[in-house]
Amino acid sequence: AMEKTCMSVFLLLVAVSCTLAKDVGKKDTKETPAKPKLPQTLSRGWGDQLIWTQTYEEALFRAKNSNKPLMIIHHLDDCPHSQALKKAFAENKEIQKLAEKFILLNLVYETTDKNLSPDGQYVPRILFIDPSLTVRADITGRYSNRLYAYEPSDTALLYANMQKALKLLKTEL
Q: Least CB-packed of 1, 7, 99, 111 within 10 Å?
């Protein structure tokens, strides 16, 4: 008898919540016209005020022609490490300010260019490429098994590496 009562109460709750959910949906559509969904910006949440390139080819072209280093961030929307790094990156004012000196690209897919996965295809990874279009193998994170990986706690290292990429640019060109 107890099980039957519990089941009845459960089904009643389900029915009530479904009805309420329908009502809520109806009210909203009458009062406010549906807002058109804005297309996702190229920043994908990594820094909306920064200028991001759309493709690897465009990024390479702009790096070469502007004489700025290119910073490529590989990440995935459903990867908790990528999401955590994105949040740390976007909320770090120093990183956001320094990022303005780079050509920026963030990719949620792998490119066929083997240079962009020198030690494997993992996310998140951040690579620096100089205007001579060379991947900077000397600018890495702190993990020997994933050279270009950064954790949210590595923002100071990432910032230092961004500075290093800019400094190398001045000394080598």
A: 1
What is the number of structural domains in the chain? 1
Q: What is the largest CA-CA distance in the chain?
A: 83
Query: Which domain covers residue 130, as residue numbers?
Result: 56-166
HSE at residue 131, side-chain half, CA atoms within 13 A, is 18
pLDDT for 41: 82
Q: How far apart are CA 115 and CA 129, in angstroms?
A: 10
**Is 89's pLDDT higher than 60?**
yes
How many residues are listed for the chain in this entry? 173
- CA 57 to each of CA 39, 108, 135, 145: distance values in angstroms, whole numbers, following the listed order: 22, 15, 14, 28
Is residue 138, in this structure, part of any structural domain at all?
yes
Q: What is the CATH number of the domain that holds 74?
A: 3.40.30.10
Q: Which of 130, 116, 126, 118 is nearest to 148 (CA)?
A: 126
Q: What are the pLDDT digits (tens) for 23-48?
A: 544 444 444 455 554 455 899 999 99
